[in-house]
Structure formats: C-alpha cells, structure tokens
Description:
The chain is built from 18 helices and no strands. It is mostly helical.
Amino acid sequence: xxxAASVLSETAWPLTLLLAWLVGEYGFQRLRxxxxxxxxxxxxxxxxxxxGFLPQAQSPTMVLLANMAFCLILFExxxxxNLRWLRSNPWIAATSVLEASLTFAAIYGLLTWWGQPMxxxxxxxxxxxxxxxxxxxxxxxxxxxSGQATERLLxxxxxxxxxxxxxxxxxxxWAVLRTSGNIFAAAYGSLVVFGISVVLGMFxxxxxxxxxxxxxxxxxxxxxxxxxxxxxxxxLTFGLKxxxxxxxxxxGLWARHGRMVLNASQRGFGSLGSLFSVLLFVxxxxxxxxxxxxxxxxxxxxxxxxxxxxxxxxxxxxxHPSGISWRKGFFIGLGTVPTPAxxxxxxxxxxxxxxxxxxxxxxxxxxxLALEFIGPLLVQWALVWAHEAPAFREV
Length: 395
C-alpha cells in the first residue's frame, strides 16, 4: 500500500518549487512585482514552522543545492568584474571599502549599544557588510537594466561580498580561539580556508579553459561546461569544508581574465539558472521562523535602517570622485539593501561544519530575512528611478 505521508514528504520540494514559479510568473506579469518576492513568499508560507508543508528536517543536500544556485550567480558576478576598470578608476574599490567599513562600524555600534555580546556583534557586522549579488542579478535580468548605476551596483555587491566573507572568517577564527584556545582550529577556520578556496577557484578556471581548448569549444556555446564546472567546484569546496563563495568568485574573475568568452546565450545559465534561482529563494525564505522574526523584530529593523544609512552615506561621500552624480550614488546605495541570501547560506554552512557560535545569530538573521520581500522591490525601484530599467519604461 502506498504511504501517503511518505509520498507527500518526497514531493514537497518539487511541488513547492512549481507553485513558487507559478506565483512568481503571475506576480511579475500582472503586478510587475519581482519574481523572487513571490518565491520568498511561497517558501515562507510553506516552511516547516508555518504551514508545515516542507519537511522539518533540513538535510545537508538542500544546503548544498542552495549553495550551487547561489554560486552560479556569483560566478557570473565575478566574471563581470573588469580588474582593468578598477585600476583605471580606483575610486570604485575605495567606495566599496568605505561603505563596507562604515556599515561594519555602524552595525557593531548598534548591536553593542543594544547589549549584544561582542562576538555576536562582530559576526553580524561582518555579514551586514555584504549585498546579495544573487538578488541583484535576478532583478537586473528581469528589468533588462543597464547603465552606470547598474554596473556600479553589481561591482560594489561583488566586492563587498568578498570583504564580508573574509572579515567573517577572521572574526569566526578569533571567536573559536577565544572559546577553545585551539590556535590551529582558529587559523584553519579563517585564513587557511579563505586561501585554499582562492587557489581552488583559480585551478578550476585554468582547468576549464584547458578542457575547452582541447575540445575546441572556446568559441562555441559552453554554457553546460561552465555550469558543470561551477557545480563541481561548489561540491568540492562544500565537501572539504571550505568556502564555495570565495572559490566561485575567484573562478569567475580568473575566467574573465583568462580570455574565456561568455556569449549572450550563456548569461544566467539559461533554464538551469532559472530553476536554481527558484530553489535558492524558496530555500532562503523557508529558513525563516515566524516566532524568531517577532522576537527579534525591533533590533532587526534597527539593523536594517542603520545598515542602509551607512551604505548610502559611504557611496554618497565618494560619488563625485568616482565619476557619478549624488543622485546616482543615492540610487546605488538604495540598491544595496538585499543581504539575506548570503547571510543565511553562510550561517547554514557554518552550522553544518559544527560551529555552534552561529546559533546565537539566527534570531537576528531571521529578522533581517524580511528584506527578502522588500529588498527586491527597492532594487527594482532604484533601477527604474535611475532610468536604467527599459522593461518598466513602457508600464
């Protein structure tokens, strides 16, 4: 006899993804809402602690798949970074460092004033530096956005993500050393992991380029080759307990400057990228627990407000030296709101590695996950107000 409960459990994720896709298409076509808002809404509503449709137990496989989805987008972000442009206009890198530093200081000051432990405040301040490239890339693709604000926004999100992960690893190593006194575990969990991840990303780029040349596919559509390379790299770094985020960004950067050419058909990885995007944003929202959001709502909203103000200020201060207007700088700062995807994935992976220090961060991280609903809207509005979203000019 068929076990109905077993069948429902096994089909919960596929059915949820199908429903999320349908709701996303309806919301985008009828209401012009970002698709990922609908994905997050469905994931939150059907989460184990809400409707209970999705399974309660969270397997490492789902975390791995979500990391693959996130890193496919990160690869494209890394590929989009032109290091020559950063050398010719160093104010862009300076802007990233300034806005990330101001954000770190502002969040740390807020949390310590609120009475949070120093380790908690430092770790959350590090994660708060980052802007989710996954959210930005999906909104830019939907809006068919292009222009000065769009390019700066993608550059800054990629750069501050690298800074956030690097600082987070260092602080996590310090926290481990402080609690356990094991200097080897502290060093391995921070700088060693970061360095090895960078090396693996470079190796993946060199190996992929070599294989494409041997197979004589350098000038052809190699979407599948790049997708498989990214997925394999994420699986390897995940299994070795390294950083998939750092490795994939390095892969993208090295691929661009190794003369690997991505044609238009390869951007976004086609249907595979769209499928993984649905999975990513449903998964992120499904990690949100309503009671945790309510418990940390006040400090979470303060976190969001301080973070946004610091980023807008940091970008605005160097707007003119970097070659943009104050108006463009404000819209770019507004577009840096999204952060939940990176925060949740880093916390989930760190927990799977056996580090329980991050458990104390979950309530605040869950509260900031509310940005998964309003963040995409703010990015969309910022691009429209900057007159760089042609898909919405006719509406």
